[in-house]
Amino acid sequence: MAGVRSVDDSWLAWIQSATGETVRGFSAVPHGANNRLFRIDCESGKRFALKIYPKTDGDTRDRLSVEFAALSFLASRVPGIIPTALVCDKNLGVGLYEWIDGDKVESPSADDIDATLHFVARMKEFSSDDDAGLLGTASEACFSFDDLQDQITNRYGKLLAVAATEQALENFLNEQFDPHFRGLSTAAFERLSGHPDLRSVDPRYRCLSASDFGFHNTLRRADGNLVFVDFEYFGWDDPVKLVCDFILHPGMDISTANKQQFWKGARKIFISDPTFDERFDLCFPFYALRWCMILLNEYLPERWQRRQAAGTMDGLEQRKHQQLLKARAWLIKSKAVQEWKPAKVT
User: Fold this and answer.
1) How many C-beta neighbours within 10 Å does residue 337 have?
2) Do 32 and 51 touch, CB atoms closer than 8 A?
3) Which residues pair with 3 in a beta bridge?
4) What's the CATH number for 104-335?
5) pTM higher than the cut 0.85
6) Rounded to an integer, what distance in angstroms lies between the CA atom of residue 233 and that of residue 39?
């Protein structure tokens, strides 16, 4: 069987036991640094997506349980635009899902932005469902400005701890990032002293979030419809974080018009939240700084372990260099006037 050396035989036996299908073949699908994904081809002609969630030191998140629970919760609420969760085995660390035939969304259109906004609106709607309360918080949720500050500071500390042997990284952290972060923080805390209501999101206005949400985790079917994938960070969060991350995510490149359209649509979805605009303006530069830190994860030993577990260790030094260049670009985003943001929402 093609690729048998890269797939554990126990997974194949589990698939047959769980589905009654005989596996004819499988192929690895490029899927980032956190896990492994295979397309499973069965004798009957059926196809499944087998997702492997490696365990690594320092990562205490149960990404399998989170994703499976999220997709199970969403199944009857947004049918057809997410993969169906079929079966999982926590001992093996694997999940079996509907296989989605689709292409990457390379150049999103206005209709694609509308489709993402529709999904966000639906998530807000069923955030009030009784069983939504059984779902956990999103990975690295930010319910307050202090949460956001702490995440940036903690990530900075981890990077600084390994920077002694990485001269370019050390220079960036000490000479560019830290002075800007300190100055921005001083101004933000001065503002918060007069507006304490901006310090956190009222629990009434929290919503369910796909967290790692965007066109980088979206497939386009042959009929043009979108399917949203990857829900291993799903959970409760501040909608401001959802919107900031969609606009800032380095995994996709959306136009100024796309950003304007998404912002206007998101603002209407969360119009009942009285401090949404002000929290967004306060937090957006800091989410850009948070992305600076995330982009530099390639320098951390735990990321190397995760890449090794996922089989994506090639070109590490080049990857570090590329990510440092991106981090510099996202530092600029934290300083720039948000020209894409309309002055007034209508």
Assistant:
1) 6
2) no
3) none
4) 3.90.1200
5) yes
6) 22
